[in-house]
Each structure stands twice: as structure tokens, then as C-alpha cells.
Hints:
The chain has helices spanning 9-12, 17-29, 69-77, 108-111, 118-124, 127-133, 142-152, 176-185, 205-215, 248-256, 271-280, 295-302, 315-319, 331-343, 345-359, 364-379; strands spanning 2-6, 36-42, 57-60, 84-87, 99-104, 136-139, 159-161, 192-196, 236-240, 263-267, 283-286, 307-310, 324-326. Helix 8 (176-185) crosses helix 11 (271-280). It starts with a strand and ends with a helix. By secondary structure, the protein is α/β, with parallel strands linked by helices. Strands 3-2-1-4-5-6-7 form a 7-stranded parallel beta sheet. It has a 6-stranded parallel beta sheet with strand order 10-9-8-11-12-13, with helices on both faces.
Amino acid sequence: MRIGIDVRMVYYTGAGIGQYIRRLVKGLEQLDLTDEIVLLQSRKQEPTAVEGTPFPWRPLWTPAHHRFEQFALPLELLFLGLDLLHSPDFIPPMRRLCRSVVTVHDLHFLRFPHFLTEEAARYYGQIDDAMKRTDHVIAVSEATRQDLMQLLGVNQNKISVIYEAADPAFRVINDNAALVKVREKYNLPGPFILAVGTIEPRKNWPTLLRIFAQLKDMRVDPDCAGRGAAPDQPLTLVIAGRRGWLDKDVFSVAEDLSLGPRARFLDHVPVEDLVLLYNAAAVLAHPSFYEGFGLPPLEAMACGAPAVVSDTGALPEVVGDAGLKAPPTDVELWIEHLRLVLQDPVRRAGMVQRGLEQATRFSIERMARETFTVYQTVGHPK
């Protein structure tokens, strides 16, 4: 069987779906495959979208999310002789040329349409037809599977839940010098609350800023301050993520609250630095209104950072009983949870240990193996 995987999103965006594709391809490399895998990538991505992969690739001229994608992409695929196409970015080609598998990461655009730009609304507005055209759907969490059934009426037998996984780079780093160095690089000598994600409405950063405004003068227990923290330093909020869409409110709230340098926006952070920041953080806060999976809490737990997350979407699945959970707009409960983590060393240590154990339940090998099983089932129907 000749299986094509659409990897154009690696070029389109380095985060989110692009990272999912990278991890999936790396996982498939480790399997003993008898079928042929072909990576379908942007013509601008050379020599390959996923470094070091043995899989052959074919360049595509059609850009991801282009307004003419549904007409141009099928023409390009026509000559590739695929038996199955995996579309990791929700929407398969309108014209069916082979068997089809899609991955749905979340349906936030249906639950929160006011968070979308006009361009995003146009693209994701194809989701209903896409679910009817495809042969099988991979949902990255049980929460996403439930949304597919409830919001789009997708038959449960057409859906497989296959959890995502963190990159192996996210792990505990027992190198105090490296932690001190990353603190110096970003001017973070003391305890800090870390938040990771694109600056866009769904992430709910304005609420986190308001929460922090009520916590910033609290005393952090030295044993809760995070590794490498200098004593007697004030608490800081660090948001690591690129600017996205409709992001002006975030900066306006920070200014209105007069947080100044106590609220730090780091923009994009290289993976090697992000690993160290997770390791050094006092706690990860992830107040998102909705996540179809939620990688930052998983990455944080794998690095030994406790996580406080929203009780919505897939986040409770990701953190299990290792993390504390609160409704995304319940400011008082968020403050209570964060105070607990920042002032109770015993509670924090227990969360760290349970988080490390929870993180081991998600693996790239398992994700790849279960995905390839879907390929086999869809490509060789009974």
C-alpha cells in the first residue's frame, strides 16, 4: 500500500499541527513497515520537511490553507498513485482519489467561532463536508471524539482516539548550571509562573494576567520556587508564545494592570530553552478556554513542573490526577490553586511526582503504532 502523509503544515507553521506531524513521522520511522510512506510537502521545503527521515517525499505547489487548495491539490495528487492519504490538518481534498484518513485536533472553531479570523472561519467551515468525505477520523483525545459525535454527528465507529505525545526532548534536566544560564538569558532570577502557547483569544491570557495581578506580591516558599531560583526575588509571570490573531487585548490588560516587567512576553522560545524553562518554573498555568489535547501541560509534567489547568476540553485527560483543575474564568479558584502550589512544598512535590508518572502514559511510539493500525484498517477494508 502506498500511503501519502500531507506534511505541508510543517512549513506553514512550526507549532501545533506541524509538531504533531514531525512526531508522527519520527514514530513511524521506528516501526517495521512493509507499506510505502510518502511525505507530501511544500515545494519550498527542501530537502525534507522532517529532518533525517528515510521516507521519500514529493513536492506540492499548493500552499496549505490556500483559497484554491480544494481545486489545486487533487490535481497534484492525481499522478502520485496513492492508496491512502492522511490529512493531519482536518480537511481532506474535496475530490476523492484514494482512501482517506484525517486527524482532528479540536473543534474550538465550532465552540468559539468569535475567536476566529475571517480566513480561519472560511477554512474550518469545510469541516462538516470533510467528515462526510473521509473514511476514518483520528481524534487526539476523548474530548475531541465526543465533540465530533455531538457537534458534527460523526458515527463513533468512524473515530479512533489516538493521543498525542510530547517530544522526548522534554525531560528532567539535572544540570543546575544550564538552569541558571537560561534564567540569566531571560532575566528570570526568581520564581516564575510559566504559560506556554500562542497569544490568541482561546488561550485566555487576559484572565491569567488578572490572576497574577493578585498573586504577584505573595511570598513563594523557597522549596516551591523552582530549580535554580535565587532567594528573595519577586514572583514573575512568563508567557512564551508567538503573537497570533486578535491578540491586542492581552497586551492592553497587562498595561492596564500596570504589571510592567513582572509580566514577561518571550515570543517564540527555541525548544532547548523551553525545556529548561519548564524545568526551572515554579508552576505551569494553562487557563485555556478549550484544548483538543494540550501539549504544554504534558511537556511541563515530563520536565518535572506541576501543572494547573482549565477543567475543560481534553486538559483533564492530559493531566489526570497529577494536576489541579479549575474553570477557565474562576479567578478565585485559580488563585487558590496557584497559592497552594507556590506555598505548600509537600503538595507541590506530590504533584511533580505524579506528573512525571502521568507523562509516561503518552508516547510517540504508541501514537505512531496506533496510527499505522488505522492506515491498515482503512487501506484494507474487510
